[in-house]
Amino acid sequence: MFEISTPGLYSTPMVDDLVTLGFLILLQAVLGFDNLLYISLESKRAPKDQQARVRRIGILMAIGLRIALLFGLVSLIEYVQEPLFGIDTLLIAGHFNVHSIIVLLGGGFILYTAVKEIWHMMSLGDGTHLDEQQPRSVKSVIIWIVLMNLVFSFDSLLSAMALTDTFWVMATAIVIGGLLMLWLADRVSTFLAKNRMYEVLGLFVLFIVGIMLLSEGGHIAHLEFFGHEVTAMSKTTFYFVIVVLVLTDIVQGRYQKKLLAMRGDAAKAEAEAEAEAG
Asked: What is the pLDDT of residues 89-99, one digit of tens each?
């Protein structure tokens, strides 16, 4: 088990634990970005007056379940990583365990959700508003937030276990990371509500998250298609793609505003010319 240590004359186990705790909180914050985005988009399925409450309950329940999952992983890590069954055909081959199955199912569901919402946006017409979708019950939305929170937390928990075997350090990082998510959830949702154009960007980010999880699950399962092994998308590649998407959206938005301004000036000049001619 790899542990971060603090070199120096005054290094103690407590100091090492505190340094590791800082790293784990940072890890929870970085890896929690895509989770937070999913929570903000999924909570919109609930009745409008219940959305903030849904986010709070979902995140608080997820914190408790994350700690329970952490306890289970610490006790059953060998069984989680142990192969359950294998497939070996000309088309596909692989060896699946609990970890790979959870990541693959989570990635598939997120990809399905993103594609469905993007398709819904493209099919809007006849004055239909984006929010005019069949709402889900509060209970249903909370369940999905909790379940997907656990999917997102699986890798961060395994990463935490690679840094330390001190349970209180990992549990404290989970609680602090969850509280940060609780603090940011309403702010992210409010931002998306006020800037509707970024919803498309958010859905495409979610689409990339689904692909990343599918590639990661396939890598864990050693999946091969026609003899070609699936490789996991690295976090560096993931964040690079996100930065490119954000920059593209910013440039596209500013360019569109300039085009609208130019068209407005042209229409004004044409109107003035017609008035002078009349």
From this structure: 888 888 888 87
Same domain? For 253 and 191 the reply is: no
Q: How many structural domains is the chain composed of?
A: 2
Instruction: Please check whether residue 68 lies inside any domain of the structure.
Output: yes
- In this structure, the answer to whether residues 145 and 261 fall within a common structural domain is no
- Residues forming beta bridges with residue 134, ordered by sequence position: none
Judge if 126 and 255 occupy the same domain: no
Q: What is the tens place of the pLDDT at every residue in 169-211?
A: 888 888 888 888 888 887 877 777 777 667 777 778 888 888 8
Q: What is the 3-state secondary structure (H, E, C) of the chain?
A: CCCCCCCCCCCCHHHHHHHHHHHHHHHHHHHHHHHHHHHHHHHHHCCHHHHHHHHHHHHHHHHHHHHHHHHHHHHHHHHHHCCCEEEECCCEEEEECHHHHHHHHHHHHHHHHHHHHHHHHHCCCCCCCCCCCCCCCHHHHHHHHHHHHHHHHHHHHHHHHHHCCCHHHHHHHHHHHHHHHHHHHHHHHHHHHHCCCHHHHHHHHHHHHHHHHHHHHHHHCCCEECCEECCCCCHHHHHHHHHHHHHHHHHHHHHHHHHHHHHHHHHHHHHHHHHHHC
Residue 57 sits in the same domain as residue 124 = yes
Q: Are residues 261 and 154 in the same domain?
A: no
Chain position carrying tokens 């970024």: 198
Instruction: Write down the pLDDT at residue 151.
Output: 77
Whole domain around residue 239: which residue ranges? Answer: 235-278
